[in-house]
Amino acid sequence: MSRVLIADKLETAGIELLAAAGVEVDNRPGLKGDELKAAIRAADAVICRSQPKLTAEFFDEPGKCRAVARAGVGVDNIDVPAATRKGVVVMNTPGGNTVSAAEHTIALLLALARRIPVADATMKAGGWDRNKFVGTEVAGKTLGVVGLGRIGREVARRAKAMDMRVIALDPFVTAAKAAELGYETAANLDEMLPKVDFLTLHVPLGQDTKSLIGARELGLMKKTARVLNVARGGIVDEAALAAALAAGTIAGAGVDVFTAEPIVADNPLLKAPNIVLTPHLGASTLEAQENVAIEAAQLIADFLLKGQVANAVNMAAVNPAELAQVRPYVDLARRLGLLQAQIAQGAVRKASLTYRGELAGQKTRLLTAAFTAGLLEYRLSDGVNLVNAELLARERGIEIAESSSPKKGDFAALLHTEVETEQGTTVAAGTLFGDQYVRLVQLGPFRMEGYLDGVLLVFRHRDVPGLIGFVGTIFGTHKVNIAQMTVGRQAPGGEAIGILNLDGPPPEQAIAEVKAHPQISAVTVVKLPAAGELPTWLG
Ligand SMILES: NC(=O)C1=CN([C@@H]2O[C@H](COP(=O)(O)OP(=O)(O)OC[C@H]3O[C@@H](n4cnc5c(N)ncnc54)[C@H](O)[C@@H]3O)[C@@H](O)[C@H]2O)C=CC1
Ligand SMILES: O=C(O)C(=O)COP(=O)(O)O
Fold first, then answer.
1. All residues at 6 or more sequence positions from 262 whose CB lies less than 8 Å from its CB, including other chains
2. Is domain 98-277 classified as CATH 3.40.50.720?
């Protein structure tokens, strides 16, 4: 009989579903340390929410555990790469708590605007003050929504119903799509922040979003503005927010999520003025908990009893033998996607892939999925993989088109990609040398032979003598080694593009010095995996 550890508080509907399916349920929420480790090892699968921190050590020796289901969205409390390495499938249940998280955000917004918690507390302490708690209407005010995914969209829709003006910021939402929904867009945070009366964050916690709102960003906002964080602790810097509230440079905040949960006594937000706090209650409604408990239990029952995998954030349902054959091209396609994600400016509308020569008609769906996974993987909270990449792109209104042409050009096989955003189209094409070495052979209109790994410095320039030496000297001075370099140009003395492969990330100062050259028009730093480093879904 299969055994499932329930490592968090889970609605009984989920537990009943497992029992009815003939699975043994070990319902022990709140286990920690060695006890949790032992319970995981003894189970075939685990169901959790955000409380247990399933760090790498829990997957070191997973015993018989083969799957973790997160009854909710954010998997930031689970070390997914560590789980993957050990072959543990991690699944989640996006969508089930979307409405609850959105409603909680609106509840905090109104509680702040009308100062309800403090008025309530004052009254219960014997007070009656109708002058001290004068609030503000939200109608006519501007709400900035950062992250217009599932929850952000529901928040924006509700704000619109309250006659708020909505400005959205999300790399996967074009101005046209936003306008269709009745929202404005901002090109970046700096443009959005000075305009908003309320700011709400609905992005996953990741490298890009940690401290997304810090002292500098809070400083760009109106003194009368209020900040809401129902996403994840740390997306808004806690110390900076507490300081801005104390200084009165921000008028209020509503926070549901914290860097350490349960909150620690010295968290500066506990003592900050004009703040409404809730203990991670965004998904805590009967409805949401029933949804996610049933969904998570069903995922685990199907996995254990039928071998079926759905909603996996770290696993591709691709036949292993097939994958082995095309692995180097899958790697190339993903790297081109990662490159395009970092060089394309503005919200992505469409990606068009053309398979030329020997690649024509060869598992192109798989390669297109790999390219799409690369294009999306920096931004989304769900782990993007071969299985879900195209669906996730479609959900975000990104069209993915592919075509094949068996005619051979300069290369026996070529993958040509074009990414269209509201600001233009970027072209990148790649191939394999010697059936295994991944190479970039075209960027924009320029032909070249570039390496698609590590840190790349891409610079557009005019092909004038001495320029390459100028750039090389800058990196030499800053002690950043240049491992490779390639230049593509159409004609001597004309427009050109240079790519340097650097042995480490370049300091800001070095980039500023490169940009200062009058013949260099644009500089972009692109971060790609090291050569041979494969994504977890391909490893
Ligand atoms: N307080 C609570 O109880 C709950 C909190 N959450 C949190 O909310 C987050 C969002 O959930 P969903 O809306 O379901 O996820 P989602 O994946 O549907 O939406 C996330 C959106 O953020 C956008 N995004 C990513 N990086 C961005 C950036 N740097 N700037 C602007 N936009 C960016 C993505 O393009 C995507 O559209 C989850 O990751 C989770 O951490 C989710 C449920 C309940
Ligand atoms: O689904 C999410 O990401 C949440 O933050 C909800 O967390 P919880 O399940 O209530 O611990």
1. 279
2. yes
Architecture label for domain 3-95+286-306: 3-Layer(aba) Sandwich (3.40)
Q: Report how far residue 264's alpha carbon sits from residue 220's, in angstroms, rounded to the nearest whole number.
A: 29
Q: Whose CA is nearest to atom 25 of ligand 1?
A: 379
User: What separation in Å is there between the alpha carbon of 204 and the centre of ligand 2?
Assistant: 12
Residue nearest to atom 33 of ligand 1 (CA): 147
CA distance 119 to 348: 46
261 is catalytic: yes
Q: What is the pLDDT of residues 233-285, one digit of tens each?
A: 999 999 999 999 999 999 999 999 999 999 999 999 999 999 999 999 999 99
What share of residues in the chain are helix, strand, coil (percent, to 5)? 35, 25, 40
Cα 232 to middle of ligand 2, angstroms: 9
Q: Global pTM?
A: 0.74
Q: Residue type at 55?
A: T
pLDDT tens digits, one per residue of 258-268: 999 999 999 99
CATH 3.40.50.720 residue spans of the chain? 3-95+286-306, 98-277
User: Is 232 one of the annotated active-site residues of the chain?
Assistant: yes
Please give the angle made by the CA atoms of 529, 428 and 483, to the nearest 5 degrees: 45
What radius of gyration do the chain's Cα atoms show? 25
Helices (H), 220-307: 238-247, 286-306
Nearest CA owner, ligand 1 atom 42: 73
Ligand 2 pocket test target in 6, 8, 53, 73 with most atoms within 8 Å of CB: 73
Q: How high is the ipTM of this complex? A: 0.99
The residue type of 389 is A
Name the residue type at position 364: T
